[in-house]
Amino acid sequence: MASQSTNAPDRLRALLGGGTVVAPFVWDGAQARYAAAAGHPAVYMTGFGTAASHGLPDIGLLGMAEMLENARRIVAAVDVPVIADADTGYGNPVNVANTVRAYEAAGVAALHIEDQVWPKRCGFMDGKEVIPLAEMEQKLTAALAARGDPTVLVIGRTDALAPLGWDEAIARARAYHQLGVDLVFIDGLKTVADIERAAEALRDVPRVLNSELLSGKEAAALGYQLVIQLGTLRAMFAAMRDVYGELASNGRVDLDGRSAPTIDEIASVLGVDEHRAIEAAALEGGTASE
Fold first, then answer.
1. Helix or strand or coil: residue 184?
2. Are residues 91 and 187 in the same domain?
3. Does residue 81 lie within any of the structural domains?
4. Residue 72 burial by CB count (10 A; 0-12/13-18/19+): exposed, middle or buried?
């Protein structure tokens, strides 16, 4: 079975040291296993997708308990580092410290904490509000101090661009960097021009990009160290819409035009061979003792 056999934060730091890391969005263990099987060196647990898995929009309807439980499941499913959405940290600096300790105990390699007012909302939705900079600095200070393992990456995210503009978003990203966060993350970059502007303003600051607009190579050329690939989430929702729509329209799903895996192939990605090996070893041991 998959397990985090060596220190996940160390492995993620080593990956980042070797170049830009592209992490697909996942919100369950099956997606995480498929991402790892495709060769991705890390995965990103999306808050939008986690909320969606509960049949809910990403507008602050889930709390730490639901997000943490999902992080645990994804970490247990794969032996690659997991980067996790931790929303606003779920309260004041004391709550943030508790969140960091809990996520670290769950085995995540990195987590991001944002400066939105709670209840927060998806970074690409309208109507976002942010807390004062000084309040967010207190929360990030608590997050950094709470780590039992200082190699766990803390990512400072700002959503100030939409409500307050470029100057404030850049100032906050720089302030978070100066506090000591490992990476900064301006969310809500909706155009290539936005992505380039943020890169130019923060050229000396390690940063995260959340977008489907650039390839990993293009993001690397702009100096982004970590890309969480939003296109993977949108493509999975498109596939669900199309398959269920096809079934509703035609009464069946045509697999002839799709490279659909067999049930055995799916089970293999999900680790059936590992479980069968455990079963075989147990049966062999039982037989030998008779």
1. strand
2. yes
3. yes
4. middle
Alpha helices by DSSP H, listed for 26-91, are 29-37, 47-53, 64-77
Give the long-range contacts of residues 243-249, CB within 8 A, separation 24 or more.
none
Structural domain of 255 = 242-288
How many domains is the chain built from? 2
**pTM of the predicted model as reported, rounded to 2 decimal places:** 0.94
Regarding beta strands 207-211 and 183-186, do their DSSP bridges make them parallel or antiparallel, or are they unpaired? Answer: parallel
| Residues in contact with 223: Cβ distance below 8 Å, sequence separation at least 6, in sequence order | 199, 203, 207
Q: Which of 46, 68, 78, 86 has the alpha carbon at shortest distance from 232?
A: 46
How far is Cα of residue 35 from the mean position of the Cα atoms in its chain? 12
13 and 151 Cβ atoms separated by less than 8 Å = yes
Q: Which tens digit of pLDDT belongs to each residue from 163-198?
A: 999 999 999 999 999 999 999 999 999 999 999 999
CA angle (50 as vertex; 44, 51 as ends), nearest 5: 140
